[in-house]
Amino acid sequence: MFHCLFRTSLIASVAWIALQPGLSLAQDAKFPTKSIEVVVPFAPGGITDVGSRIVSEYYSKELGVPLVIRNQPGGGGLTGSAAYMNATPDGYTILAGIAGSIVSNVLLSRNPPFDPRRDLRPIGYIGDSPVAFLVHKDSPYKTFEELITYAKANPGKLRIGVSSLGGETHIMYTSILKDTKADLRMIPYPGTGQSVAALLGQHIDGLTLSLPASMPYASSGEMRVLLLTRRTPIFPDVPAGADIGLPSVSINFWLGYLALPKTPPAALEKLEAALKRAASDPELSKKLAQAGFTVDYRDSAGFAKLIDSNWTILSQVIKETGMKTD
Asked: What is the C-alpha radius of gyration for the chain, rounded to an integer number of angstroms?
């Protein structure tokens, strides 16, 4: 009797184990069957959070399930991005990534918690927003070249405000140092508000700022935009770094989505396809434009190339300028 029961139990167990791959494949094919969490490694209200919430509205429609934003700020985006590495690789938790959170702050870390080229799997890239270099309306510098000419003749005299150490505004500042060899003094601020107030009060000579944050002051004439990391129709006469021989001044405030490498292929395929459809919606483009983003969709391969390119550029910038966050 015991042997019979044991044999029956063993056969049932073997049959159950044999069925697991099939069950897993079936579950993957039905993906997604529940809400998906989007880790945003910044506080609510910032440009990454705002952009992610806009995209999530359309991404959710294409996936057929809710997308829930989870803000996990700290360390210039590094804290939440590093914590994401412990998520279950099933496609139900994805990461909103920007250059500051998954490239520059990783490179600047003494003990990098991850390597985005190895430990993250790109889903797709939505688009970007340029970073701007601004001066006060009463500044004597009408062009960026004039400012740099003065800086070279007067080393250390010009003070440039930066509000996000390790982030895109800091990247623009250090990229300018690398490409111009000018001696500029960086004045760090804990936030955008403080850096903007400093320029408006003429306590500093220039400021690096995201395009969305720049627009109210540039539009009102209180500040002038002298340089951008890429051209934009919003300021058609302002050159990009590449236009005036500054190739490193090219890293924008971009937004893309990533998963973990062990995410099931079927889940990744659906995540990619849904993001591509969402990116093609003209209403999404309109809403992102209002937030300062331009949709420039790239698939997973294109996004991976962008990450590699940013990694290469920033590695050289850090090497040549000694860029640091402390």
From this structure: 23
Q: Considering the entire predicted model, what is its pTM?
A: 0.85
pLDDT in tens, 131-160: 999 999 999 999 999 999 999 999 999 999
Q: Which residues pair with 36 in a beta bridge?
A: 67
Does residue 70 sit within a domain? yes
> How many CB atoms sit inside 10 A of residue 111's CB?
4
CA dihedral angle for residue 308, residue 310, residue 314, residue 315, rounded to 10 degrees: 0
Q: Given strand 131-136, what is the order of strands in its sheet?
A: 185-188, 159-162, 206-210, 131-136, 223-228
DSSP string for residues in 192-205: HHHHHHHHHTTSSS
Give the structural domain span for 84.
Answer: 36-129+252-321
Strand segments (E) across 200-325: 206-210, 223-228, 253-259, 294-298
Q: Does 67 fall in a domain?
A: yes
| pLDDT tens sequence across 20-34 | 554 455 556 789 999
| Residues 145, 209 within the same domain | yes
Distance CA 260, CA 268 (A): 10
